[in-house]
Prior knowledge:
Layout: H1 3-15, E1 26-29, H2 31-47, E2 53-57, E3 63-68, H3 75-90, H4 94-102, H5 107-110, E4 119-124, E5 127-135, H6 139-151, E6 159-162
Antiparallel strand pairs: 1-6, 2-3, 2-5, 4-5
Amino acid sequence: MTKLGIAIALFAGVSCLSAEAQTVSVMVLDEAGAQTVLQAARTSAQQRNAPSAIAVVDPAGDLLAFERMDDVRPASAELAIQKARTAARLQRPTAEIEDNIDQGRIAFVTAEIVALRGGMPVQVNGQTVGAVGVAGLSKETDTEIAKAAAAVLSSSANTLPHK
């Protein structure tokens, strides 16, 4: 067999390897999980008498669920979505990013992210499955509501594995 024939045979053999070996299993929020997080945020906001805009996103930052409660400023809607998107994509609370900027890491300012408190990743078994963003009365209240909502699935099975 010629060198070209051997090369073609090797390429064909490698190309036929199982696609399963080349993929990873990822867990993401499904509709039920997103609604559970949204409801937990709504309940937490109502308990604090803190009307809020609440956004729930998947790990890529795409919107899954949203609610804007009565008496919330219109700009809060977009802020909630952006906070959730930032927390999902960076897989950490937006409060950490705001703190980093306050401590001089100004490179974050040039990134297209919202570095305001109130975004929290939703994690199941240590894996980020989405995020929640809250915008309403104050950064402290937004953070408390987001934390409460993100924690609701920490030991729940309201997610679906996707490949």
